[in-house]
């Protein structure tokens, strides 16, 4: 039985980029008097509709879209807390108008934090919008500063995250700033509660963590991986023909203007990491310099396009992995598997029938509080993908094990991550090169101890 707060409904549309989430959300809004809330971090930024993949105005059917293009290019991407506060405020406004709130977007850590009570904050989320200027200034500092501060207040979480994983480091520090409690302690409480046979002994308020905030229907728009990869490649080609390079120029001009004004910009975060911008910088630099031949420029352009396609495909895989592991397990823990459906959009010519029509029927039954079908019965792909690919171990402190590969300069934070790394093609290739250098070196310089251990371990496996 699903345990939710109140009976007011929310429809959430999730899925990888390029699957048609926005189209489905608009169709739902048109039929059921809805308004749409954007849940995509890059689409928070104003302008740049091609780079950020905003749905064109003429395809929105006049449906109001909220939290779309609402922050400037110079602003930091919203933290989870900022997004949740602003989204809850919009949900209240939409309901006050007697309309259905529909959340759609590919930033699934935003979605998951909105759907479930935030035990890591351990306090009620305000429904008053929160702007970036209202949060602690330290959260705007460079990642290394955040990590140093986190190490001071919660060394367990500082060791948990990869030193370059700004979002997770920032979130762990934000939890401490908001609550005065270590995120590592809260994670441990949650783990103990899940494993305790007597649920009556749980700490006050801890039960809220696994509960949905509101009665929610989650629709996952998916596609077979090979089909989706081809679709994403074609979409990048279309982005180029629609004017992607003009937006790259616009963003670069904005950057140059700020630098000329004496400002500093951290290009490792915010809009600057959007796929489809950074990949074209080498081409753009050569174009502006003016000393490259047409053949060289064409080569750089082709490389930039291929990098964008590869980055998009990798991003889609990460989105799917999040849904299958984190969101899937969270929904299961909440007892809400019966309200989590996957719609197979692999067959593009039949997308309306396979995705939109089925999705609308599910929404209709959900709003009427009728019995919903078995989610795994909708398609073979649904039966496969709605089973969590593995448990979510992100809150299992007992499984955290930080290791650093000096050969590849890569840090792993769990034993499973480490096993994947040392068995990867990249690592084996690096080890092979290391062996050759060691054998051919006349100086016989000793390897670093950690690298020597990896060398010997790999040699045994080979």
From TrEMBL:
This is tRNA dimethylallyltransferase. Its EC number is 2.5.1.75. Residues 187-208, 427-462 are annotated as: Disordered. One of its GO terms (biological process) is tRNA modification. It holds the Pfam family IPPT. It comes from the Eukaryota. The lineage of its organism: Eukaryota, Fungi, Dikarya, Ascomycota, Pezizomycotina. Residues 187-197 have a biased composition (Basic and acidic residues). Keywords: ATP-binding, Cytoplasm, Nucleotide-binding, Transferase, tRNA processing. The keyword Metal-binding does not apply. GO terms for molecular function: ATP binding; tRNA dimethylallyltransferase activity.
């Amino acid at each position: 039985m699903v345990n939710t707060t109140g009976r007011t409904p929310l429809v959430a549309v999730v899925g990888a980029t390029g699957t048609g989430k926005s189209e489905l959300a608009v169709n739902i809004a048109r039929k059921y008097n809805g308004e749409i809330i954007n849940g995509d971090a890059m689409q928070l930024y104003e302008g740049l509709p091609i780079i950020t993949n905003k749905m064109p105005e003429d395809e929105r059917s006049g449906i109001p879209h909220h939290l779309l293009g609402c922050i400037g290019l110079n602003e930091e991407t919203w933290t989870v807390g900022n997004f949740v506060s602003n989204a809850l405020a919009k949900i209240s406004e939409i309901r006050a108008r007697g309309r259905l709130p529909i959340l759609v977007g590919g930033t699934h850590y935003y979605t998951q934090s909105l759907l479930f009570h935030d035990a890591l904050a351990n306090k009620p989320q305000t429904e008053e919008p929160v702007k970036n200027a209202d949060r602690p200034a330290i959260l705007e500092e460079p990642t290394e500063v955040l990590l140093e501060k986190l190490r001071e207040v919660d060394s367990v979480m500082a060791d948990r995250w990869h030193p370059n994983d700004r979002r997770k480091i920032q979130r762990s520090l934000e939890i401490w700033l908001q609550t005065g409690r270590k995120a590592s302690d809260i994670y441990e409480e949650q783990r103990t509660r899940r494993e305790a046979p007597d649920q009556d002994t749980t700490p006050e308020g801890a039960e809220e963590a696994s509960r949905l905030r509101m009665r929610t229907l989650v629709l996952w728009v998916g596609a077979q991986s090979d089909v989706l990869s081809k679709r994403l490649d074609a979409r990048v080609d279309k982005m180029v023909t629609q004017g992607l390079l003009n937006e790259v120029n616009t963003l670069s001009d904005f950057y140059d203007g700020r630098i000329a004004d004496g400002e500093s910009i951290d290009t490792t975060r915010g809009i600057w990491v959007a796929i489809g911008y950074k990949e074209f910088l080498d081409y753009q630099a050569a174009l502006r310099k003016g000393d490259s031949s047409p053949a060289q420029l064409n080569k750089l352009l082709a490389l930039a396009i291929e990098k964008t396609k590869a980055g998009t495909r990798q991003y889609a895989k990460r989105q799917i992995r999040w849904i299958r592991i984190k969101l899937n397990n969270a929904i299961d823990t909440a007892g809400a598997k019966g309200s989590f459906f996957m719609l197979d959009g692999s067959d593009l010519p039949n997308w309306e029938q396979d995705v939109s029509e089925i999705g609308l029927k599910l929404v209709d039954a959900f709003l009427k509080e009728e019995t919903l079908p078995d989610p795994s019965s909708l398609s073979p792909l649904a039966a496969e993908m709605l089973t969590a690919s593995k448990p979510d171990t992100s809150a299992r402190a007992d499984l955290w094990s930080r290791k650093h590969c000096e050969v590849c300069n890569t840090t792993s934070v769990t034993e499973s991550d480490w096993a994947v790394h040392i068995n990867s093609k990249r690592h084996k290739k690096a080890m092979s090169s290391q062996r050759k250098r060691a054998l051919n070196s006349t100086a016989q310089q000793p390897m670093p101890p950690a690298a020597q251990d990896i060398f010997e371990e790999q040699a045994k496996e080979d």
